From TrEMBL:
<keyword id="KW-1133">Transmembrane helix</keyword>
<feature type="domain" description="EamA">
    <location>
        <begin position="153"/>
        <end position="282"/>
    </location>
</feature>
<keyword id="KW-0813">Transport</keyword>
<feature type="transmembrane region" description="Helical">
    <location>
        <begin position="179"/>
        <end position="199"/>
    </location>
</feature>
<feature type="transmembrane region" description="Helical">
    <location>
        <begin position="99"/>
        <end position="121"/>
    </location>
</feature>
<dbReference type="InterPro" id="IPR004626">
    <property type="entry name" value="RarD"/>
</dbReference>
<keyword id="KW-1003">Cell membrane</keyword>
<dbReference type="InterPro" id="IPR037185">
    <property type="entry name" value="EmrE-like"/>
</dbReference>
<comment type="similarity">
    <text>Belongs to the EamA transporter family.</text>
</comment>
<feature type="transmembrane region" description="Helical">
    <location>
        <begin position="265"/>
        <end position="283"/>
    </location>
</feature>
<feature type="transmembrane region" description="Helical">
    <location>
        <begin position="151"/>
        <end position="167"/>
    </location>
</feature>
<feature type="transmembrane region" description="Helical">
    <location>
        <begin position="239"/>
        <end position="259"/>
    </location>
</feature>
<feature type="transmembrane region" description="Helical">
    <location>
        <begin position="128"/>
        <end position="145"/>
    </location>
</feature>
<dbReference type="InterPro" id="IPR000620">
    <property type="entry name" value="EamA_dom"/>
</dbReference>
<feature type="transmembrane region" description="Helical">
    <location>
        <begin position="35"/>
        <end position="54"/>
    </location>
</feature>
<feature type="transmembrane region" description="Helical">
    <location>
        <begin position="211"/>
        <end position="232"/>
    </location>
</feature>
<keyword id="KW-0472">Membrane</keyword>
Amino acid sequence: MPISEHNKGLQAGLFCFIFWGFAPIYFKLLKHVPAIEIIAHRIIWAALFLLLFLAIRERQQLIHSLKVTKKQLLILFISGSLVISNWLLFVWAVNDGQILATSLGYFINPLVNVFLGMLFLQERLNKVQIIALTLAASTTIYLGIFIGQPPWIALALAITFGLYGLVRKTLDVRPLIGLFWETALLMIPALVFLTMLSSNQTSSNLDMSTMWLLVFSGLITILPLIGFNYAAKRLTLTVIGFLQYIAPTISFLIAVYFFGEVFTFGHKVAFTGIWLALFILSWQPMMRLIKRKPVK
């Protein structure tokens, strides 16, 4: 691939992962709205923004592009439920002052992916991967002992997103088409939920600025995904793998230095162990990438 295309992919990759890293600040602006209500709006507006984007991109081919089989729809409903659960937990944790836990979860996620590959796809682990997984698991267990309970938010985020990736791996559906159906299939339940809240007068008292924030939560969802898909076509999986650590790193810094979340000794041990595990896991791909000559 020409260097110019690689650079465009790199710029798109940096954009989406930096965007995801700063996302907690956006959702903090909606902390007065219950997380489940935010997610209902996010589902609806993400589906509508995606449909608009796909209509512009696909033009006359839109209807054909959106065609999927009944089996694919069922699997997309399952994957959609997983990713929506992940969104719900993420937004709730952010607004509950636990951005640090979300950062830990997304750092653990690549290691969970390796474990799920072994468990469900019969992928064999080499010695380096076994060492990395053991180190990450032991330090995560230590954090649970230190705080007196399992770090369930981090683990649930990592597992739901890992399972989401596993389910989507079995589908031959383009990422943005798949995401459209994942949100579209849950759009009716989301609308029913918001209608019930409104009729029972239990919905939040939303002013105009809050309403606009909820509308643009859909755009906040799809913009980085568009960038990610653009980058994924132009970069190797190795480069994408390194870039994915940008988002939880930014979230970690925001949690500790911007929102003042407590960074205990247990967190220091856990994060150090997981960072070391990720470094061990990334060492061989990083060396291969450095040795690879650029395409001219």
